[in-house]
Amino acid sequence: MTSEHNLDFATNAVHAGQKPDSEAGAIMTPIYQTATYVQESPGVHKGFEYGRTANPTRQALEANLAALEGGKHGFAFSSGMAAISTLMGLLKQGDHVIVTNNVYGGTYRYFQQVMTEFGLTFSFVDTSELSAVQSALQPNTRMCFVETPTNPMLRLTDLRALSNLCKSHDLLLAVDNTFMSPFYQRPLALGADIVVHSTTKYINGHSDVIGGVVVLNDDHRAERIAFLQNSVGAVPGPHDCWLILRATKTLHLRMPRHNENAVCIATHLQKHAEIEKVIYPGLPEHPHHELATRQQLDPYGKPGYGGMISFQVGSWQRAKTVLENVRLFALAESLGGVESLISHPASMTHASVPEADRRKLGLSEDLVRISVGVEHAQDLIDDLEQAFACL
Length: 391
Hints:
CATH topology of the largest domain: Aspartate Aminotransferase, domain 2
Distance between the termini: 54 Å
Helix content: 25-40%
Radius of gyration: 21 Å
Oligomer: single chain
Largest sheet: 7 strands, mixed
């Protein structure tokens, strides 16, 4: 892993964790579609005993993703939520967690409706304000779990500053890096202890696999995550791992196009008479634009603002009209695929968040979220324009 850390991001995307197959010399990592492994003698084997515990295809993916995040240990899971739920196994009954208030709806549901039943407590605060995190601290606080940018309001948290605060209070800092991917943001380098992803999104990028990953450097905590991964068993199948491993080879090619298209579309929408507000960190008017420019950097130091844009159109009926009349944008949940998607967070991805809480976050009924793909930007703008013409 040390040598991989010395290679360029693009080179690691193509090669990290992989080597030609020793049996036939295949350049691509094989799909080891097996549930168990033959042992030479009881307890004597080639490092593999049972498919839930370890699989060579999965190990290649885990090493690849760890290298891209600049981490030492990677653990793949069957979904992003499986990764987050396993991460909660680092805590115990009575512990308190500070969470970004505009966290993904599925994460909110899991924390509030599942983990509270096991004795954990959560405070949902605006982690973009360090004073809010400071005020939420309790004697039993053990972790700060943040998303940056948030979903779908695209508020940013200063990871370096928050890391310093967490370290001064002996807290774990876990960061959901799904929206940025390791190409545009590497939280471990900014002081985070743990990074999680829904690999379903930008890392895979082709809307055909559900997956998750946890990446970290600490050996002791990595042993615990490995134990939990094996004990809980929420692991991906080898074919899913192979698909994601294939997809990471083009991550460094896809992400700049997502970003380029989103900047173009956000700039266009900002001037549009039918739009009340555009939310995108790449716009100078965004309250966290300076932080985004400083924190969200590609491996070569160039700022990236991602492919997610939210905008308000004035009413639920107007939002519904846009959602129903796009042609290239697909009305669907998820994000980060090569194809552009459009969604209504209040009734789709964040429906599990109570209405009163949605209102506090600004997550209104007229809010539309788009995941900008890698198509031609003008075609996407034309598609939105013909939908706006129906208003």
